[in-house]
Amino acid sequence: MEKLVEGFKKFQSEVFRTKRELFRRLSQNQEPRALFITCSDSRIDPTLLTQSEPGELFILRNAGNIVPSYGGVLGGSTATIEYAVSVLGVKHVIVCGHTDCGVMKALLHPETVEDLPAVKNWMVQAEATRRIVRENYAQMKGEELLIATIQENVRVQLAHLRTHPGVAARLRRGGLTIHGWVYSIPTGDIWAYDDEKEAFVSLVASVT
Q: Which residue among the candidates 17, 20, 25, 43 is catalytic per the annotation?
């Protein structure tokens, strides 16, 4: 805790002071560029990954970067998506998974969460991922299978995202784009889903 308090002191004395005008504007309004949906994992920092300033990202975090299908779980995640798209008018929604994801490991080995009823119940939202992997990746094992599961889960959550009324309406009339990313913790790379290729490709390569 002491380290966190010292960090806050540094923020006040060094960061806030130099960006006082930015925070003054943010105190009146927010106009984020994107809704960034990612895992609660402590190794993922959306603002660090994208080098974003305060106010640029509206961030939704939960275990496994899961997007409940609309009508399935009308909870905080659904409300956050609705607000970002329909009120704040974000132009982009990013669903970002990551390597070494604990939820995806549990999806492959459900016995590891038998004593975690809340986690087990939450993982029902990724049942389509589990079924896709079981029926299409039987030849894979170990890390290769985990990476395939992580990528397929991002694709499933993008499909869930399209069931949200606000998202569907904005996609139909234009002005909203959805993206699927997977962040590699050991390499710092991001793989982005390419709809035309139906595959994940380097994010840097996909925009150059």
A: 43
